[in-house]
Amino acid sequence: MSNGEDIITNWFARQRNLPLGDFPIGIGDDMAQIRLADGVSVLITTDMLLDGVHFDLKTATLQQVGYKAMAASLSDCAAMATIPVTAVVSVGLPAGFGQNQLKELYAGIIEASDKFNCPFIGGDITKWSDASKFVINVAMLSRPAGNPPVRRNGAKVGDVICVTGSLGGALLGKHLNFTPRVKESLKITSLVKLNSMMDLSDGLSSDLNRICTQSGVGAIIDANSVPISPDAKKGAACPERSRRDPFFAALNDGEDFELLFTLTQKNYEILQKKCEAKRSPPCLVLRSKTVGENDSVPITRIGTITDTGKMQIKMPDGKITDLNPSGYDHLK
After folding, report:
1. Mind listing the pLDDT tens digit for each residue in 148-159?
2. Which pTM does this prediction carry?
């Protein structure tokens, strides 16, 4: 099952038959890849964030908005295990927006860019004729990290499905203050080969569906294994989601910006040996100087790639049911 955004994205991809020699990765992944001269290639992504949708300037600071805009694009670099290079930022400002506010926004942009050595090198400024909503757009370049970029379409039957961190409840604050998993992605792919990966921006149920659809496979998730965040356990992330329980939030809330990836059972066992094991909850802990001497990031095995062609979930009572993509849909 595809949502409206996926349907139109696939339509766009069919309109142009781009030469693979020049564009090894086109529409449909977290970043597109352009091959330059002498075997050198660059990857590009762009993300547009809207006031009232991705943040609310009634409660969020401009520094938080600038940080999130950069961090969301950095998360795309993490999704494909590539190294961020540089970014340009464009803004559509409401009437009355001045230099001091732009400086506050800039502080957030620089906060994120400095963390990952991804300099902000310019952009564009436009202004509405009235006090309309605020818009910010980041375009970011990255480069391969020695291994080919990890795509969404490589999941294989029998693969182990894993996620980093915990899921759900991001609108309570994490969506403005998350750490893109760039270092973790590069560390994991230096240890083992991943068959597929993306970042979790629209919700586990929707984003796993994208991997399954593009790879031509199915999946079964173990409900008991899905790592639910403390914020999801506290309750609804926003009033309109008050009916959602923590597990539903973990599946569908989105804006977690964690990594979702698949790898063979053999490579999962290798990863197990390279990481520390944690018993409660059962997961692996990625800990190294590359990630950060004092940082540890859990990696949880949540399911298996299957040959069914559909997504399923094994509930705590053992019943297996279909898992429908119910995360965020930009065209719904």
Report:
1. 999 999 999 999
2. 0.90
